[in-house]
Design goal:
Layout (H helix, E strand, L loop, with lengths): L2 H17 L25 H19 L21 H12 L5
């Protein structure tokens, strides 16, 4: 499994965990381009916080790397790392660094 696939798998596992706690009409999609947070996003700030913690834990468990996603400066109108699963995976890979990809 490539590092990108491992990161996407960790993100989707975190989303599945969160989806278990959400009502049916608020479930988060699992497609790589499914909207997460922002103008087209489906999650609110509380769910985003839960997602951040869950993804950090899954990355640590699966890739044995500690990352921090709490820097909200990565969420701007032009550049939103939490726009969808693909953008979040790209951001996480940039945190991990080229030596680990």
């Amino acid at each position: 499994m490539s590092p990108r696939e491992a990161v996407i798998s960790a993100i989707k596992t975190a989303i599945n965990d969160i989806n278990e706690t959400l009502p049916r009409d608020r479930k988060i999609g699992l497609a790589d381009d499914a909207a997460l947070y922002g103008p087209a996003g489906v999650i609110d700030s509380l769910t985003l916080t839960l997602l951040i913690v869950a993804v950090e834990q899954k990355i640590e468990q699966s890739l044995h790397r500690t990352i921090s996603l709490v820097d909200m400066s990565i969420v701007t109108e032009d550049n939103n790392a939490f726009r969808n699963i693909a953008t979040l995976a790209s951001h996480i890979l940039s945190l991990i660094g080229p030596n680990d990809q």
